[in-house]
Specification:
Blueprint (H helix, E strand, L loop, with lengths): L2 H21 L29 H10 L9 E2 L2 E2 L4 H19 L5 H25 L4 H26 L4
Antiparallel strand pairs: 1-2
Length: 164
């Protein structure tokens, strides 16, 4: 499969997920989704098969959903915490940048992607050490990490196609 095709699929699916995540809190009564904190990989609640429950169930499986680390819209938490939300938005930006930036070498893409991902890891470590969360920091480093994932994917795909 061609690199641009795969990156386009990442771009479209991440953009759609971003739109749905911002729509979810507004598609339910004010404050319907609050206090969702749980554990990653464990579904702590019963969810229906209808929107927005499906999106919140996805968040319940892949994110801790801690209220203090989440954006609040319409009195409800977003389905994912701020870092995860902005990581998906960053994946859109990274895929778009990789598609538009022709000629970036695989090696440079992998280095840049790794550095961007490391910012999210460093932020996580600092905030875990401090025992507090800064929403702006979560958003910025989440976006950087998501961008890094798409750029790293580009580098991997280009490396596999023979571009060094």
């Amino acid at each position: 499969m061609k690199t641009e095709t795969i990156l386009s699929a990442v771009l479209i699916s991440a953009a759609a997920l971003t739109v749905l995540m911002f729509a979810a809190p507004f598609s339910a009564p004010y404050g319907a989704y609050a206090g969702l904190g749980g554990s990653i990989g464990i579904t702590d609640r019963r969810w229906s098969i209808f929107f927005p429950d499906v999106l919140y169930a996805f968040g319940d499986m892949v994110c801790h959903q801690q209220e203090g680390r989440s954006l609040i819209l319409n009195g409800s938490q977003m389905p994912l915490c701020a870092r995860c939300t902005f990581a998906i938005m960053g994946a859109v930006l990274g895929a778009l940048a990789a598609i538009l930036h022709k000629g970036l070498s695989a090696k440079r893409a992998m280095i840049a992607g790794s550095i961007l991902i490391a910012t999210a890891a460093a932020d996580w470590a600092v905030q875990a050490f401090l025992g507090t969360a800064f929403i702006l920091s979560l958003a910025v480093t989440g976006a950087a990490g998501g961008t890094g994932l798409s750029v790293l994917l580009y580098g991997y795909l280009e490396y596999g196609s023979g571009e060094k």
